[in-house]
Amino acid sequence: MESSTYVILVLSYCFLFSLVVARNENALERSEDQIEAISHHYHTLKLSTFISSAVCNPSTNGEKRKGSLQMVHKHGPCSKFNEDMMKSLTLDEIFSRDQSRVDSILNKVRKEIQGSKTTLPAKSGSSIGTLNYIVTIGLGTPKKDFTLAFDTGSDLTWTQCQPCAGSCYSQQDPIFQPSTSSTYSNISCSSSECAQLDLARCSSSTCVYRVGYGDGSFTIGFFAKDKLTLTSEDVIDDFFFGCGQDNEGLFVGVAGLFGLGRDKLSFVSQSADKYGKVFSYCLPSIDSSSGFLMFGSSGIGSNVVYTPLSASQDNSFYGLDLEAIYVKGNKLEINPTVFTTSGMIIDSGTIITRLPPTAYSALSEAFQAEMTQYPLTQGPSLFDTCYDFSNYENITIPKISVVWSGNVNVEIPPQGILIPVSNEVYCLAFAANQDDSDIGVFGNTQQQTLEVVYDVTAGRIGFGPGGCS
Ligand SMILES: *[C@@H]1O[C@H](CO)[C@@H](O)[C@H](O)[C@H]1NC(C)=O
Ligand SMILES: *[C@@H]1O[C@H](CO)[C@@H](O)[C@H](O)[C@H]1NC(C)=O
Q1: What is the annotated signal peptide range for this record (predicted)?
Q2: Mutate to test the pocket of ligand 1, among 180, 186, 201 (most ligand atoms within 8 A of CB)
Q3: Average pLDDT for 148-157
């Protein structure tokens, strides 16, 4: 009796125990599934990911690529720029300059559509905005190094030149002195290159260029050519550029501008024989060190996917077609005609991606629905979806991806989803245009860490993940 009770007790205990184990195993399996599903649709990251780190650690990806130039964020740890000079811009100023860049892009595109090219454009360049990515190139013989703002939205490359007959702003590098370069020469007014300038005039038979930017900044000087050295193997002997004698406006610290637009005088067009109008870059996030800028098709990552380059409404810009936006793996309900009507360009100089208002509100609504655990707060006027993270060390945010024409899905890196606007406040890093008919702009915050390939000859633009950190 006693022993049988004992056996039954032991048996039932074993049975119960095995049940408990089995249920625990099930629970474990289920929660692992859930974690996987959740991480598939969310990023969980430390807030410090969004903040500039103090040390410069050149990206291994960038270094590995033969013949690539180092691409640096002006405010990042590898920038050699004097931070006192750089920090003089407030956030409001940064975002208002970003808006003025977008406004000037919209104006240029509208003019092209309306065909009002009969009058000379008063302003041939986009507003310079803040141009926060910089590269260093060599100019002249012997070569001197100059740090230029990298800009896919303009064509003519220029640098400030001695003797600064009009005026030069303060820059970090010594100003280019043409008389010390044995390969420098002025371009004559009768040359075919001079005829390609939007705005040119003659000064004792020397071709004089002028580029006015949308925000009133301008550069005027001698149209010139000299040897351009990117790396020891990448040298362009007769590179046409502006030797700026009067440079005024919102340029800060850089020696000038490196124009990688789509039109005739851009570096891309001038080096077409050598690189076949192919270039690629990775814009590093501000917390990281450096990305790269590379010309030609060798070394392009194998996981890059391509979308067709669209017939842009303006010759300088690179157009592409957005088809859909996903938040947390769900496609936003946006009528596709919203995107076909607006069109889109990709621009290295615009900070925040601009979307048609209809698409932006769908995005912001879906994002907010996933962020209900965080308190909403006010941010700069460009943004309407900002959060107060003062009580958080780590945050969980929904993944966002965009789908380009040809079903090319590009996941936006976390640093492209939120932008810090103070120590505690972070905003959804997208903004709405005024009108659904305004062209969208895919900006540099969203391009960070992606490998972006411009294959102009083949008419396509490629994106690959993890181009740099
Ligand atoms: C370029 O042209 C300007 C204006 O005519 C002149 O002052 C300068 O000496 C010229 N430079 C060279 C290298 O010819
Ligand atoms: C944040 O995440 C890290 C791991 O990445 C973890 O060690 C830390 O405890 C987390 N902090 C909080 C407050 O949850």
Answers
A1: 1-22
A2: 186
A3: 93
Q: Per-residue pLDDT for 269 more than 90?
A: yes
pLDDT computed for residue 7 by the predictor? 38
Confidence of residue 329 (pLDDT cuts 50, 70, 90): very high
Average pLDDT over residues 418-437: 96
Q: What is the mean pLDDT of residues 158-169?
A: 97
Give residue 36's pLDDT.
54
Find the ligand nearest to 392 CA. 2
Task: State if residue 273 touches ligand 2 by the CB under 6 angstroms criterion.
Answer: no
Q: What is the mean pLDDT of residues 50-75?
A: 70
The catalytic position among 98, 155, 226, 347 is 347
Residue 249 Cβ < 6 Å to ligand 1: no
Residue 350 has pLDDT above 90, yes or no: yes
Going from the Cα of 48 to the center of ligand 2, the distance in angstroms, rounded, reads 11
Cβ(298) to ligand 2 under 6 A?
no
* Range with lowest mean pLDDT among 20-24, 190-194, 255-259, 417-421: 20-24
Cβ–ligand 2 contact at 394 (below 6 Å): yes
SS3 string of the chain?
A: CHHHHHHHHHHHHHHHHHHHHHHHHHHHHHHHHHHHHHHHHEEEEEHHHHCCCCCCCCCHHHHHCCCCEEEEECCCCCCCCCHHHHCCCCHHHHHHHHHHHHHHHHHHHHHHHHCCCCCCCCCCECCCCCCCEEEEEEECCCCEEEEEEEECCCCCCEEEECCCCCECCCECCCCECHHHCCCCEECECCCHHHHHCCCEEEECCEEEEEEEECCCCEEEEEEEEEEEEEECCEEEEEEEEEEEEEEECCCCECCEEEECCCCCCCHHHHCHHHHCCEEEEECCCCCCCEEEEEECCCCCCCCCEEEECECCCCCCCEEECEEEEEECCEECCCCHHHHHHHCEEECCCCCCEEECHHHHHHHHHHHHHCCCCCCEECCCCCCCCEEECCCCCEEEEECEEEEECCCEEEECCHHHCEEECCCCEEEECEEECCCCCCCEEECHHHHCCCEEEEECCCCEEEEECCCCC
